[in-house]
Amino acid sequence: MNILVVGAGPTGLTAAVELARQGIVPVVAEKRPEGSGLSRAVGILPESLELLAPSGTAQALLRKAMRIERAKIFLGDTLKVTLPLDISDDLHDTAVALPQDRTEEILRERLAAFGGAVSFDREVVDITQNATGVDVSFANGRRQRADYVIAADGVHSRIRTALGIAYGGRDIEEIWSIADVNARDWPHDRSFVLARANTGHMAVVAHMAPQRYRVVSNTPDALKSLRLPMDVTRINRQGQFHLAARQAKRYQMGRVFLAGDAAHCHSPVGGRGMNLGIADAADLARRLIADDLDGYHDARHAAGAKILAETERLRLFLSSSRAVNTLTIRAALTLAGALPPLRRRIANRFLHG
Ligand SMILES: Cc1cc2nc3c(=O)[nH]c(=O)nc-3n(C[C@H](O)[C@H](O)[C@H](O)COP(=O)(O)OP(=O)(O)OC[C@H]3O[C@@H](n4cnc5c(N)ncnc54)[C@H](O)[C@@H]3O)c2cc1C
Predict the structure, then answer these.
(1) CB-CB contact of 172 with 244 (8 Å)
(2) What is the pLDDT of residues 18-76, one digit of tens each?
(3) Ligand 1 and 304: CB distance under 6 A
(4) How many CB atoms neighbour CB 145 within 10 A?
(5) Which member of 123, 150, 203, 271 has the lowest number of beta carbons within 10 Å of its beta carbon?
């Protein structure tokens, strides 16, 4: 079987690793000249680690990543509750943090171990298909015929557009911001920190590596919106980004399959985006190997729709400035602070969705 994976982000690389470890080494075409230096996603959730375990990727990630032991939730500058995330040594209960570029590097290493590689500087510009195969054209004028194509080419997917698949949903009128920093003496190491103000403004801090932190906020300035004292020694990168909540109407058209951000996008609330793409990719690779492709759209479209709806509900609830939301959150966190089983339940929800 001749498979072309378009896009070497976490989704495309997971699909390639999963296929290669089972004996089908795909071609992976990536338009960038080299690996991305962007560290967008940080949180790798238990389901992803489980899916990545058979290829040895999870074990490699665990060696490099920061294990997240707890989530701390602040209202204003008051710590309301600490949720235990380090529940057991089982992969099934482990969440880790690693900048996305490092995760992609480890996936490329695992792909190489199974005999595969990424072809950089290979931008797909067009795609056509018939009953027997798919023809892909590249920006350098070359063409390639494949039995199947996995479109993991991200939120602006050229393939999705070329096939005329609608990306339904909406753009969100908010400016979010991100900062990757080095800091000294942050008292919340190995933690995921959420600090929310009564206005609905939030800042989230994830510990990525020794003395290295990611701050994300639903305001235009992540560092300014963080009300907890942080002794920043260096700003490695900061910027703003826009959000959308969209999903492709179809994940399959003939011999072409959409996966990852090409199929869905939503806000980073809950840290699900990359994890959902990894799950799409693992499911698709399994179905390609088992020649069981018919259920892909139904299974993964439903999984994506569920996460999109939950993420949007949570984003709207947390970021609202309505007093009733703040009162509800305060009451729920006070209760969770007093009741260990409730704390475990919330932690479980965070880890497993
Ligand atoms: C600020 C921010 C924070 C985030 N935090 C989290 C988080 O904590 N947890 C989480 O799970 N998710 C998070 N996400 C979401 C996560 O980054 C994405 O869901 C994830 O990158 C999607 O992976 P992907 O491989 O599907 O797409 P991408 O990572 O976008 O990869 C697509 C690849 O395809 C290539 N490509 C595009 N077009 C072509 C073409 N025509 N030909 C060849 N190659 C092409 C691109 O160069 C790129 O390498 C965050 C996103 C942002 C913006």
Answers:
(1) yes
(2) 999 999 999 999 999 998 777 789 999 999 999 999 999 999 999 999 999 999 999 99
(3) no
(4) 12
(5) 123
Q: Based on the fold, state whether residues 104 and 236 are members of the same structural domain.
A: no
Nearest alpha carbon to residue 57 among 99, 85, 21: 21
Stated pTM of the model: 0.95
Helix and strand numbers (H, E) in the chain are 10, 20
CB-count burial class (<10 Å; 0-12, 13-18, 19+) for 210: exposed
The HSE-up count of residue 146 (CA atoms within 13 Å, CB side) is 25
* Range list of β-strands (E), the chain: 3-6, 27-29, 43-44, 66-67, 70-75, 78-84, 96-97, 118-119, 124-130, 133-138, 143-146, 148-151, 167-184, 191-196, 202-209, 212-217, 231-248, 252-253, 256-258, 264-265
B/e letters for 221-260, b = 16+ CB within 10 Å, e = fewer, are: ebeebbebebeeeeeeeeeeeebebbbbebbbbebbbbbb
**Stretch 242-253: mean pLDDT:** 97
Same domain, 176 and 313: no
Helices (H), 169-250: 222-225
Q: Does 31 sit in the ligand 1 pocket, CB within 6 Å?
A: yes
Residue 164 CA, ligand 1 centroid: distance in Å? 21
In this structure, what are the phi and psi dihedrals at residue 18, rounded to the nearest 5 degrees?
-65, -40
CB of 107 sitting under 6 A from ligand 1: no
Bridge partners, 167 (sequence order)? 248
Range of the domain at 119: 3-42+100-165+250-317
Write out the two tokens for 81.
Answer: 């509750």
In a domain, 82, yes or no: no
- Which SS3 state, helix, strand or coil, does residue 275 take? helix
Strands of the sheet with 96-97, listed across from one edge: 43-44, 96-97, 66-67
Give yes or no for a contact between 82 and 70, defined as CB atoms under 8 angstroms apart: yes
State in Å: Cα 294 to ligand 1 middle.
26
Residue 14 lies in a domain: yes
